[in-house]
Amino acid sequence: MCLLLMAGNAFAQTTPSLPAQLAQQQLDAYNKRDINAFLQPYADTVAVYMFPNKLLYKGKETMRQEYTGMFAQTPDLHCTLVNRIVQGNTVIDQESVVFKKGVPPLAAIAIYTISGDKIVAVHFIAAE
């Protein structure tokens, strides 16, 4: 009975939550390689980690530098969303990322933590 009620509640939600909207907004901009639109959902103090807690960098301006270069150097760049889980202020995206046509995609997981109306942290898990 509990499972049935939970499924009913899941179907009742027709509009994506704000955390899901923010994750989708940055994904859409990533695929367009639009750096300004990509950065918009992120907090100025965003922290980016390799899971579980290895800090890669902090701050939106550093993120701008990282992604501007990647967008310019990878014309085939495309991320396909395989699965998305939203729980409260956390979004977990399972992704398949193509960096170059003809090369197998990278399987990755991105975990977004949202506070207020911005993404404040990202934790990446990449297949070895």
UniProtKB/TrEMBL annotation:
Residues 24-121 form the SnoaL-like domain. InterPro entries: NTF2-like_dom_sf, SnoaL-like, UCP030561. It comes from the Bacteria. Transmembrane segments: none annotated. Pfam families: SnoaL_2. GO terms for molecular function: isomerase activity. Signal peptide: none annotated. Keywords: Isomerase. This is Steroid delta-isomerase. The lineage of its organism: Bacteria, Pseudomonadati, Bacteroidota, Chitinophagia, Chitinophagales.
